[in-house]
Amino acid sequence: MIVRRLARPMLAAIFISGGIGALKQPKAHVEMSEPTLSQISEPLGMSDQKETVIRGYGAAMVAGGTLLALGKFPRLASTVLIGALVPTTATHRFWEESDPGAKQMQQVQFFKNLGLLGGLMLAAVDTEGKPGVTYRAKLAGESIERNAKAARREAKLAALEAKNG
C-alpha cells in the first residue's frame, strides 16, 4: 500500500537523524540525557562509559530507522525504536522545570515523543493486511480440532461397519 511506503520513511527520518547525531556527538547527548542516562547505565555496569551507551542508542536508532524506512522487518524495527524512544521521552522532565520557557520546550518534546510512540506502536502491530500470528494460531487450532472430530467420527463409523459387517 502506498501509505505504508510513504509513512514508514517519514516516521523513520527522525530516528535516523537523531541516531546519526548521537553517533557523531555522544558527549552532547550525555549532557542532555542526565539523569535518565545514569539510571540506564548504572545497572548495566557502564556508569563510566556513558558515551558508549549513547553510541549504542544511536546505532539502534539508525538501524531501526533504516529498516523501518526500507520496509524490512518493520514490526521488529518499530519495536526496537520504541525501546530506544521510551528512555528518551523520560529525559524531557517538564514537570521539574521552573522556567516557563524551558518547561514549555520540554513539554513539547515530551508530547512529540508520545506521538512518535503512538505511530511506532501502530507500525509494530501492522500486519499489512495479512493475518497475524495470533489469528493464524487460532485457525490452526480450529483446524486440528475439526480434523480430530472428523477422525473420531470416521473411527466410529468404521467400528460400526466392522460390527455389522
Task: Itemize the secondary structure elements and their pairings.
Elements: H1 2-24, H2 26-32, H3 36-41, H4 50-70, H5 74-90, H6 100-125, H7 133-164
Helix pairs in contact: 1-2, 1-4, 2-4, 4-5, 5-6
Low-confidence stretches: none
Q: Which structural class do the helices and strands define?
A: mainly alpha
Terminal Cα span? 60 Å
By oligomeric state, this entry counts as single chain
Number of domains: 2
Question: How is the biggest beta sheet arranged?
Answer: none
Rg to the nearest angstrom? 25 Å
Q: What string, H for helix and E for strand, traces the elements in order?
A: HHHHHHH
Which percent range describes the beta-strand content? under 5%
Shape: elongated
The proportion of residues forming helix, as a percent range, comes to over 70%
Organism: Janibacter alkaliphilus
Membrane topology: Multi-pass membrane protein
InterPro entries: DoxX (IPR032808)
GO cellular component, one term: membrane
